[in-house]
Amino acid sequence: MTALVLFLPPALLLFTLFVVLPIGEAAWYSGFNWNGFGSPTRWVGFDNYRFVFENKAFFTAIRNNLLIIAVSLLVQLPLALTLAIMLADRFRGAVALRMVFFLPYILAEIATGLIFSYVYDGDYGLLAAVYRWFDAEAPHLLASRTTAFPAILVVIVWKYFGFHMMLYIAALQAMDRNIVEAARIDGASRWQVLRYIVIPTLYPTIRLSVFFAIVGSLQLFDLVMPLTRGGPADSSHTMVSFLYNFGVMRMRVGFGSAVGVILFIICVTFAFTYKRWFMRNE
Amino acid sequence: MSDRIETSPFSEDGFSPAALAKGAFLVLVVVFVLTPLVATVLGGFKSLGELRVNPFGLPWEWEWENYAGILGSRRYWRLLMNSTIIATLTVATTLVVASMAAFVFAHIKFFGSAMLLNYLTMGLLFPAATAILPLFIKVRDLGLLDTYFGVILPQVAFSLAMSILLLRRFFKDLPDELLEAALVDGSSYANFFRYVTIPLSRPILATVGTITFVHSWNAYLIPLVMLNSDSLYPWPLGVMVYQGEYSTEWHLVLAFITLTIMPTVLLFFFAQKHIVAGLTAGAVKG
After folding, report:
1. A9 touches chain B (CB under 8 A)
2. How confident is the prediction for chain A on average, in pLDDT?
3. Rounded distance, CA A84 to CA A34, Å?
4. Range in A30-34, B24-28, B96-100, B107-111 with the lowest mean pLDDT
5. What is the mean pLDDT of residues A16-28?
6. Helix H or strand E segment including B159
7. What is the distance between the alpha carbons of residues A254 and B128, in angstroms, rounded to a whole number?
8. Are B137 and A268 in contact (CB < 8 Å)?
């Protein structure tokens, strides 16, 4: 039984120390006005939560997180699904195309963000060059409150659709082709096969893909930093970049912890309800 | 497998309008994906002046010194070395710690074992960002601020939940007879783990290792908060600093980006099957 005595403690210790305790401490620190030095003494009750909810930028951040989810569901998911159906069958070049579409997913968010800050640059960028072809003045997309976040949304689709496509391809390849064959022999058209057999078999994967899109939205931070840092005028924050900008950068431990606790509650509530409602049998 | 029966309504043969539409759509997506990447690599070969007027085409004058200058700098290699140290130690620690715990959860039932597994699985529910400030204070109080381990240990802790789940499922699926026979022959659990479980589990260890490595290699938030010294920065922090210093000289920034993402791209081309399988399987089963 030495295995039991020696094998479990390292995992439990690391997990408790660096995952569980910090989230508990976040709840405790969120009751203080504290800059992180010495020990927290200025108890302010729920004031930090009030400050968070009085902060307009926080609601912009929530709206942006919801926009990411909307774009993921309305643009990225159909795109990924269409490509998966196109590329699940073997034809010359299908595997190479899958790899090309998956490539952005393994690039670091930081590198992706910097590449697109070049693409969007109003003087040197690729987009500016396209505008010049038409003798038009190039916009500085990332410097405008109305266009900065939509520009980030495009990058999100660029970076993540390949991952969702791969999920669908894996599911399509695991699918029983005899059913498709039988339906075809019985005279079903290709579109009928797609609508009534292929898509329904993919429902569990679609639910999984939606889950990842929403979890990804709640965590999104790295992409925002190289592109806009949340600006201009705090118009392009996500909840995590809001936390970083207003909590970590200014060492407002209480305020930042309050944002963290709110984010924690959203994440946990979402994970539980989604798994209970939509993924019960999986 | 009978490849003749396709699941796709798009796979018409020949030059039907449907096939052409499909081809055009695929070309469009390829252009959308590759243009920024190709322009970045090529941009690193141009002068700043040329970049402005010729952003899409091949360089008129190949400026090799953009790349040569970076490759000859200690700064670039320092970043790669830091990233390699952090990612390698994160992977090694995760594999050791997670596989030991997963072994216990797979084979030994004791009072509270299900509860402990649930406890560890909680780590899947929320990102490190939620607790980043208390995490910073904890790392500082432990004296690990501005050290490699201040980054490695939190990364390991946050990768444990998924790693343990994946490893435990694989360990459980190994034939029970192996363990029974070994125990009858007087082998200890520890020896069975060391000499039977681990050698048989290479595929899943590769999967978990790949996921952990990619996450650590690309990580930004935890190193950003825990490290102050440039000399310890992994490459995502370093490339941001470089961009800050040379923000007006896009040709150099593009060359620097290209060189920092090159290890990832090369690894991907040599181990694409492993990486794709690892990252998608990990997502589906975790």
Report:
1. no
2. 93
3. 50
4. B107-111
5. 96
6. helix B148-173
7. 17
8. no
Which one of A226, A247, A267 has the shortest CB-CB distance to B240? Answer: A226
Rounded CA-CA distance A20/A29 in Å is 14
3-state DSSP helix/strand/coil % of chain B, to nearest 5: 75, 0, 25
Residue A120 domain flag: yes
In the DSSP assignment, the letter for residue B111 is T
Please state, in angstroms and rounded to a whole number, the distance separating the CA atoms of residues A9 and A64. 41
For residue A175, pLDDT beyond 90: no
Say if A8 falls within a structural domain.
no
Q: What is the CATH number of the domain that holds A123?
A: 1.10.3720.10
Q: Is B276 within 8 Å of A118 when comparing Cβ atoms? A: no
Pick B104's closest partner by Cβ from A4, A14, A17. A4
Q: Min CA distance, B122 vs chain A (Å)? A: 9
Torsion of CA B250, B254, B257, B258, to 10 degrees: -170
How many other CB atoms are there within 10 angstroms of residue A183's CB atom? 18
pLDDT tens digits along A101-128: 999 999 999 999 999 999 999 999 999 9
CA B74 to chain centre: 24
Residues B32-59 have pLDDT tens digits of 999 999 999 999 999 999 999 999 999 9
Q: In this model, does residue B6 exceed pLDDT 60?
A: no
- Chain B residues whose CB is inside 8 A of the A36 CB are 133, 136-137
**Is the pLDDT score of B155 beyond 90?**
yes
Determine, yes or no, domain membership for A5: no
> For residue B4, what pLDDT is reported?
45
Do A245 and A237 contact (CB within 8 A), yes or no?
yes
Would you place residue B12 in the very low, low, confident or very high pLDDT band (cuts 50, 70, 90)?
A: low
CB atoms within 10 A of CB A184: 16
Q: Give CA A115 to chain center in angstroms.
A: 18
Say if A17 falls within a structural domain: no
Task: Report how many domains make up chain A.
Answer: 1
On the CB side of A242, CA atoms within 13 Å amount to 29
Across the range A2-27, mean pLDDT stands at 92
Phi, psi (rounded to 5 degrees) for A43: -70, 125
Q: What is the pLDDT of residue B3?
A: 44
Which residues 6+ apart lie within 8 Å of B37 measured at CB? A103, A115
Instruction: Report all structural domains of chain B as residue ranges with CATH numbers, in order of start.
Output: 17-69 (no CATH), 70-285 (1.10.3720.10)
Domain extent for A67: 52-278
Give me the half-sphere count of Cα atoms (radius 13 Å) on the Cβ side of residue A282.
Answer: 17
Which residue type, as a one-letter code, is found at position A139?
P
**What is the SS3 assignment for B106?**
helix
E strand spans, chain B:
none
Minimal Cβ distance to A167: which of B10, B130, B280? B280
Q: What is the ipTM of this complex?
A: 0.93
Burial class (CB in 10 A: 0-12, 13-18, 19+), A186: exposed
